[in-house]
Amino acid sequence: MSTTHEFISPERVVFGQGVAEQLGDCVKALKGKKVFLVTDKVVADLDSFKEVEKSLKKKNIEYHLYTDVDANPTDVQVDRGAELYKKMNSDIIVAVGGGSSIDSAKSIGIIVNNGGSIRDYEEYDTVVNSIPPLIAIPTTAGTGSEVSAWAVVTHTEKNYKMCPGGWKIIPRVALVDPVLSASMPPSVTATTGMDALSHAIEAVCSPYAMPQTDAFAFSAIRLIVKHIGPAVADGCNMEAREGMAMAALEAGLSMNANCGGIHALGHQLSTQYGIQHGVAMGIMMPIVMNFNTIACVDRIVDIAVAMGEKVKGLSKTEAAKKAPAAVIQLQKSLGLPTTLSECKADPKLIPVCAKWALTDPDIPGNPRTLTLKQIEALFKKAFEGKI
Ligand SMILES: [Fe+2]
Prior knowledge:
alpha/beta; Rossmann fold; 6-stranded parallel beta sheet; two-stranded antiparallel sheet; 15 helices; globular; binds fe (ii) ion
């Protein structure tokens, strides 16, 4: 644990079935008059989204719908969104969706109140003026972006992920309504859930871990192991949906300890191969955990215990091996790929992935130093199905 640490969270986190209906009141409480409503085209068509819109209409709140949000949002889209926000004279942002919509909303807010392009803010804590009030309403249970001080945006010219962040970009309010996540198909439930698990595991192993992040991370791990299977098996199982929504929220709060090698390497699989974020994290998770074991063996054993593994009577090293093995077992049980070969990725791109991974903003959050050669070796393992 480092000697100084900072814990950032929204002013209000409202959790429970039906809380999305509070949106109109929430906008009024923040004195918002013209909402810039950010979502993606898929979510915009869902019945649950219409319900969220209704809450604004009921209170006669004007809004402009912005749906130019890709699964991996780009610098061009974000800059364009900021221009439109100003043109519409908006004064508050509402983001409804997965991490891509909430990250886009944060990034649009950065440009609106600070000028320039999102490319000017890729270093952590370089945002001077706070973003306009942002109300985040997640529709997936994974990214935790509704409570995190991070955004991930693709640099389109160089094709890598920028991670603008800092306390000036945190949402003011998070309305976490598990009913909204019930519209997710099983595959998305599984991959977003694995993303949440990766946040919690990275937080536990991080050199920036602190008592608060530990509490949220271990609770999130236990909730995910308990609820992800039932949520994938039956999307209408509201107990499981609630469990996963709470897990994603807690894992998002644990990201105050930063992400590490799983994200630093996993990001490259999305940019180079177009692999979904949660799938990429799931593939890299056991490999990076195993690599990190010599740096934080006790923490990895704690993860194994939180995942329900029996470690009594085992040596620390043997007990630690149970954690990555449990992650692989979980992925297989959910029908997710565990290797890059299964994703039909091209191993020729390993050097490019490794080059960008080495300078990824999440590298400092890894408990063990990573060299270019080691990163290349880890990507190779991801093709071979070894850890
Ligand atoms: Fe993530």
